[in-house]
């Protein structure tokens, strides 16, 4: 099954529009790593896909960390003496530093200043700030707003709570023919920031909705969790599931206009790394492969040395590299429907490679089989061979039980889907046998592939 | 023995002229994959070298294929109402599509048109067409010829036969000290096309004539056979010989003015690939190494996954890449004596590497031996070392029983023949021992090399 | 211990000046591969570091060579009929070809000419010539000097002796925690040539003086010996020590203004090669890594196939590549204090990598440890992570017992000293354990690292 063709058939015409409207729905919610904003976000996702939500209590130990207190906020403002709110949480949830402890006081501007954060270079933008692990409070505002503040006294109020409660995350598990899993993970803890990471949340959700009705080789697990502590919590509580992860993708900042960037897993040459590299090489627009580094989003945790999972990170513009990053300018205009839709297509193409990547064995390995009498070789009389026949010759030539279709794609420079199509055709013409997939074999009929079982062992080395 | 020096001593002065005259003798013969043209071609080769010809009957099964009917042709024409032959096989055997079934009819131009083939972009050239596996008939003519045809009726005649008979190919086997073989293969099925492949046929023939009187390490097998079906037939009938092929070259299109191209074997790093790469790197004119692909000439069959033989393909211009390819413009002017002679020299240089590539062991491996007292080190007082001494130092330094001379050539950048000469000199001065060649050992005196037998095992990994 | 910081603390302010004054002291001595000049040179070094001098008698067999006669010279001149010395050994010891046999005769200029050597392209410079292994005599003079010679008779005198005696070399051995050795070797046989090789002698000497008071991982052996025959003699007489050489550097021509060049060992990827490559990559000035070749200085002997030691060669300008090489223009102005000091720093940096390169094991390998609560993670609120935290994350991520700090440096692009500092900090915070160094373990307390002993085995493969 060609997942991209399937996607084109199944999805409504306006996939980009749907993704963007979904993002718009999530945009106003005040999310943080815990609290009601996160739960409301998961509930909104749950309207589209089956999602299990897990609550982990404050104080629970997760490896070297413990689950923090739950933070909630109702209102916050800085009020001038005339009663006007000069900074108002109701206008933008970015105005309050995330995890600010409650405060209600009157103070002079000079005293207040150390709690105010701005971006002088972009005087209209509000920065995004957090203080998860050090109790503090603060306001974020545009630099122009701050310049307009007159000396004098202000009423300062943050009506928040920081109390024992829960950390909440959501999981969507789609069983496939094999219990081996593909993990799709995105951080869901940022407030009104669109690219970072409503883009990831919406694309992952609609990807899950698309995949759930298909008969898939792998099982898929979608994880919507707060950054860092969420991934750590999930890893700590799911050691068995972790062992089944064969491939994984972290989705971050995939709604902006930038070209795609794929950051490789710590392994560096995992199948998902190669699949992403192949897809991006054949993608119409410029893209870039990035080497692994231990700083970033939740691939940091998945690729910690104890796990070393084959999990890469797909982005458009790299977080931190664009000025709108972690500011109010990362808004709904910064992500566009067509960009979101293309990101969903790239994800699908990568999964298509993973789903269809297998080894075949040429059943007529001595010399070429005579394709002409099978109507698989239409000589054109021209000087060049047609692309489809070339794909068939490559598949036949390298299908020795050792080379996967992705190996063949990399060596030939032909795009994976053409080779996969060629392999299907040759298989149905009796020219190829499929080398059993060791992963699949666990759940498939073992008898059928008994003859090939040794090959399975050798192919997996 | 330096094969290139040997060639320069042995061959007549006008090697290029001889090659070209030989091509001119073969040029008019109407060859196809079977039939009298092929047999006459082999007979012409037989005047120069010992050649066994093998006839395989129509219908014989060769792997997934069967030997086709034999095709012969006496005459063919399109005659205008005034009795003039407007297309005449006697003027060029390209005028008839190869394997055309017999036809004798009168028909209107409109009816005839679907059987006419031209090249509009090169209006004076006649195309070359075949229809081996689909019974059909056709005429090839220049576009100008076709434009000159007036409406009306024409007498159309192809006086051919397509009947049970034989496929014929020729083999020239030159026994060497080892039964391990070098295979030189060229397709001999094209009619009046000079570069494709009278260039290959003539170079291969005179190469065989040159080699037959020499005391060689390897045995050599020269194969002159129809493309595709000929190679398949030979492979199907010679499984034992196939196992002895250690190196091989397909020779195609090596008479034109283009730079050399070597297409690597499927293995990609076989000794013949490295030898060809080395020779072309040190060749005076620009050249190019091409990665393996499963489309091409008979390396397709030799490199099918069941065989995976170390056989590459040497070309000048790559077939299909020049406009004259498969047209009447691929004529005797398109190949030139000096180009044919240079191609023979390149082939000889590649074989020279294969013949002389061996491992040595430095018998004075702790520090440098004192070359000066052996008159092998003439200090010049200058600032640079002389090339011959540098070659000696490289051979001594890397001759640890693991590195072959070709390894040393690749690492040092020094041309193989200088290193081979240095090794000879050091060997005769008692500074090197030769690591026995596992291949050679089979036919050589085993006692003499018993002490080194373990090295042989380890050197072959 | 960071060796470079240690060097900066320990050495006097004017390290370059000290090196240059030391070179100036050695400059006038007439050195050759044997004789009093060599012994006086070693005595001068002995004033700075403990140095054992070894005398090997003429005729001693050292592998394929034998120790030559000892050469000494008192005076030499060419005297015109008016009694004036037109060429005078007292003015420059380069005027006499090294190893000139004694001569005292009167001869015409025409007869004398074949014994005179000049450099026509640099008419003021005196060339440097030797004739160690062929008995001969000669004078070197500037081309202008020769042009000024009038026809007529000259008194020619070389008051030298070439007799049975000794070859002398010096060794300075600094024991470290492990008996595994780092070998620093420089040729000490050239007369008044500054870059070649007073630069190497002086840098090596002060490097040894710096290292002798430190508690070092490796033992260090500094070798001051005549080129070629000295290294051969040492290798022949020290087979046990040779087995302990884990890393080595030949120091040659490291005082001139050229950029650094490091010539790799025959192994090509030895730890010292990688350490030097790393240091030069991060060095402020342009530098170049050179592949191994079997011609050069004493790395030729250390890297002969029987030894194949991991010994590279550090240079500034490559010998033979600058016009002053082996001429009187390689004088004290050609080497400069700042250049000598920088060379000593580069050597120290390379040794710093070797001393501190080890493997660690992350004791919190599942997800990242929470650095924040250990005050090891100061979030800046900015968009980029600070360099020191980044180094910590890299060390934690790759410290799986397999990757050494140098591996991490190469993969991350971060300089070794930052990673080493990060590792120290993490180690002292209980986040890392050190994988025992197999070398060190031999002399260290075995019990302490018993638990890790298997790791030691696997890490050394």
What is the strand tally of chain A? 19
> Order of strands across the biggest sheet of chain A?
1-10-12-11-13-16-14-15
Number of helices of chain A: 16
Shape of chain A: elongated
Largest interface: A-C, 29 and 24 residues
Biggest sheet statistics of chain A: 8 strands, mixed
Chain oligomer state: homotrimer
Give the helix level of chain A as a range of percent.
25-40%
End-to-end gap of chain A: 27 Å
Question: What class do helices, strands and sheet pairing of chain A give?
Answer: alpha/beta
Low-confidence region ranges of chain A: 439-461
Mean pLDDT of chain A: 93
Task: Give structural notes.
3 copies of one chain form a homotrimer. Chain A has helices at 3-10, 15-26, 36-46, 109-112, 143-147, 194-211, 229-237, 239-243, 271-281, 299-302, 337-356, 387-398, 405-412, 416-428, 438-441, 453-459; strands at residues 52-57, 61-62, 65-66, 70-79, 85-88, 103-108, 116-117, 139-140, 153-163, 166-174, 181-187, 219-225, 245-251, 260-263, 287-290, 311-315, 359-362, 400-404, 432-434. Chain A has 461 residues and is α/β, with parallel strands linked by helices. The first copy, chain A, has an 8-stranded mixed sheet, with helices on both faces. In chain A, α9 (271-281) links the parallel β14 (260-263) and β15 (287-290). The longest helix of chain A is centred in the last third of the chain and has 20 residues, at 337-356.
């Amino acid at each position: 099954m060609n997942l991209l063709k399937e996607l084109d058939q199944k999805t409504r015409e306006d996939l980009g529009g749907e993704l963007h409207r979904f993002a718009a729905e999530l945009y106003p919610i005040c999310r943080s790593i815990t609290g009601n904003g996160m739960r409301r976000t998961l509930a909104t996702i749950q309207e589209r896909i089956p999602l299990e939500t897990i609550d982990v209590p404050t104080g629970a130990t997760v490896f070297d960390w413990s689950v923090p207190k739950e933070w909630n906020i109702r209102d916050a403002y800085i009020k001038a003496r005339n009663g006007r709110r000069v900074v108002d949480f109701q206008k933008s949830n970015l105005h309050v530093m995330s995890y600010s402890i409650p405060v209600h006081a009157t103070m002079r501007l000079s005293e207040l200043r150390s709690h105010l954060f701005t971006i002088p270079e972009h005087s209209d933008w509000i920065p995004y700030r957090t203080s998860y692990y050090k109790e503090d409070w603060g306001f974020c505002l545009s630099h122009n707003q701050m310049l307009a503040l007159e000396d004098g006294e202000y009423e300062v109020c943050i009506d928040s709570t920081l109390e024992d409660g829960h950390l909440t995350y959501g999981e969507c598990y789609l069983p496939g023919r094999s219990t081996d899993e593909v993990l799709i993970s995105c951080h869901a803890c940022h407030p009104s920031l669109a690219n970072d990471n409503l883009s990831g949340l919406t694309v992952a959700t609609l990807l899950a909705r698309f995949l759930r009705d298909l008969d898939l080789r792998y099982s898929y697990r979608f994880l919507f969790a707060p950054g860092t502590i969420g991934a750590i919590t999930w890893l700590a509580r799911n050691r068995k599931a972790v062992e089944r992860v064969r491939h994984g993708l972290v989705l971050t900042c995939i709604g902006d206009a930038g070209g795609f960037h794929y950051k490789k897993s710590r392994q560096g040459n995992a199948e998902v790394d190669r699949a992403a590299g192949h897809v991006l090489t054949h993608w119409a627009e410029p893209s870039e492969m990035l080497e692994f580094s231990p700083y970033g989003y939740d691939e940091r945790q998945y690729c910690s040395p104890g796990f070393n999972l084959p999990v890469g990170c797909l982005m458009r513009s790299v977080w931190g590299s664009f000025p709108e990053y972690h500011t109010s300018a990362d808004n709904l205009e910064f992500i566009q429907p067509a960009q979101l839709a293309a990101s969903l297509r790239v994800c699908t193409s990568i999964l298509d490679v993973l789903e269809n990547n297998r080894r075949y064995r040429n059943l007529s390995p001595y010399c070429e089989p005579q394709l002409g009498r099978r109507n698989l070789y239409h000589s054109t009389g021209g000087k060049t061979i047609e692309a489809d026949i070339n794909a068939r010759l490559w598949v036949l030539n390298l299908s020795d039980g050792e080379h996967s279709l992705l190996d063949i794609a990399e060596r030939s420079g032909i795009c994976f889907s053409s080779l996969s199509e060629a392999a299907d055709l040759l298989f149905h013409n009796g020219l190829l046998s499929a080398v059993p997939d060791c992963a699949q074999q666990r759940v498939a009929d073992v008898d059928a592939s008994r003859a090939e079982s040794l090959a399975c062992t050798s192919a997996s080395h």
